[in-house]
Amino acid sequence: MKKLFLIGIKDLKLMFRDRAALVFMLLAPFLLTVGMGFVTGRFSGNSSGLSDIPVIIVNLDNEQLGDALADVFSSAELADLMEPSASSDAEEARRLIDDDQAAAAIIIPKGFTSSLIPAEGAVLDETYVQPEPVKIEVYANPSRPTGAGVIQAVVDEFISRIEEGRTSSITSLAQLMQAGYLNPQNAESEAQALFENIDESQPMAITLKSDKEGADAVEFDLLAYFAPGMALMFLMYTVSYGGRSILAERTQGTLPRLLTSPTSTGQFLGGKVLGVIFMGIAQVGILILASVLFFQVKWGDPLGILVLILAAVFAATGWGMVITAFAQSPGQVASVGSAVMLIFGILGGSFIDLDQLSPFVRTLSKITPNAWGLDGFTTLALGGTLRNLGEPIMALLVMGAVLFGVAVLLFSRKGIMQK
Amino acid sequence: MSAILEVKNLVKQYGDYTAVKGISFDIEQGEIFSLLGPNGAGKTTTISMLSTLYTPTSGEAAIGGHSITKEAMAVKQMIGVVPQDLALYEDLTARENLIFWGQMYGLSGKSLQSRVDEVLEQIGLTDKARNRVKTYSGGMKRRVNIGVGLLHKPQLLFMDEPTVGIDPQSRRAILDTVKDLNTQGMTVLYTTHYMEEAQELSDRVGIIDHGELIALGTQKELTQQVGETETLILHIGENDDADGFATSLNGVKDILEASAGEHEVSVIAHEAEDVLAAVVTKANERGIRIRSIDIREPNLEAVFLHLTGRALRD
After folding, report:
1. What is this structure's pTM?
2. Which residues of A touch B148 (CB under 8 A)?
3. Complex ipTM, two decimals?
4. Which among A194, B84, B107, B146 could bridge B160 via Cys, Cβ 3.0 to 4.6 Å?
């Protein structure tokens, strides 16, 4: 294990001494991110970059809170961002999502409002038991992760406001009654008034970057989409650079020399893979740090980011190893790696939001670490945590494991020393 | 003395091509053994098999009693390898290279640092140790390349044509280093196609050609194979018929053998002076223009010529 680490560290050191590689790995993605920020108006603050996310609202509640949530999606604040349509049939809405007609359906079940606001007279009844809140269903389209993520964030924010208001109202009333300031006979009408005003008590803070209200507003910074997009695209360059170094060690004679030292082929390959992983982590880590320092990009949950970086680098390294195993020379890895970098960049959403692409392309994008990585980074930027990253992380790990298996098979077939 | 390396019928085949054709030899502890042969003779393939890099097609070899095929890790601990081509990380400094390679041989901590210092001193690069290898001259790179092979004080050092393509001064320094190492007790297997290097360094020499070990022994034993002879090298004009000239010399009194090379003819005789007049006369008869004549006493070149009918550099 020590030798793996030593080989990996040596490769990392060599990477930091290769100026051309540094330009591609760090400077290029950074400048492209800045460029995309300018193009999309992030720096002028005029645009969110995301717009007209199609959402179907099935309001089966048709009472205060259900109507309030529906109103949020058709509010002036979200007019540019959302493109809501109403439906009265939950099954039909789910079918439309399955047919990729919208990013998500919000199904507000019947009794949603009454599960939160007690009916008149119910509170004074000694047998009254507070019902479990009826849950709103967000039926998300997995092929439009960004749009679905934004919709989920809006709904979560709404629910959060309701829960906050409900809890504080009940606590306030109980305290007033205990202190004798409120007659139990009047409590019912007071409670009703408080609950009914919840949705009007404060403006919704769910907006994109332009919103300046409320410290806990859910903000989606466009650079939090483009920065990981570029980092993931150029991560593919890094892994092909690492793969290239395996074949370069063969041609420059250091691999044969290593294999005449007490170092096995497995240790060599393991060390090289570790080196690529180190390079990938260093690259994405530095880009994240730079975007935070220079542009105050909010990436979200640090633990989630760390785990996601590791998973994305693992999957990308798998691709790098497969390309290397197929290639005959470092030059071939470089050319194929660059082509794969660009194709995966486009296909994986580094330039264009995947929601705007055809269903076929969105399905195809699932073979790229870029798409899954971006899905995860977007979730985090929208306020998600590590717990919300199960799907992308699992997909990246499975992708990496399968690709490593293929690479090992190819390497063992032709032998590390053979062309 | 006991044999540190025993090679028995070692064969390496690549498809239909046989690079090494069943060679056998031993190397005694503490000796310098040279494998002398022209390019493509099978020297590097032999070293690659002995250093466990390539698996032999058949045959066996043992280093310090350890089989190169069955106990590769034990063999690797005992050997040092100086490859023909530079095998260094040029973006690392000499010190960083030595530290990395030392770590690959299991050295660490203070023992690694002190060994690196010793080797830098030995190869004369202490002052430039913190410069990146890519800034070095060819000779300096060669010295680092050798230094890497010495780090773990191997019992048997393989040196595969370590002086190819370098200036005479660096070449001299490398040959002196090999002799120093041997004086300190290191056993060396040295491959070369330079007869002078084999003559200067070796206790024993194996002559290899087309994958076969065609002669083996001390220099004295080998030169005795061609007898007490001298070789007359006649450098002739570019348009002259070397083959015809050599054929016409065979059969001339006191000439033991004549063979043609590129614009030259080699003539072996007991005394060169005895045949010189006859050779010049024959050249005049055939209209051959002799540009210069060298007389060589018995040496490994003559042995090679005697055994193969070709010069080493052909």
Report:
1. 0.67
2. 257
3. 0.78
4. B84
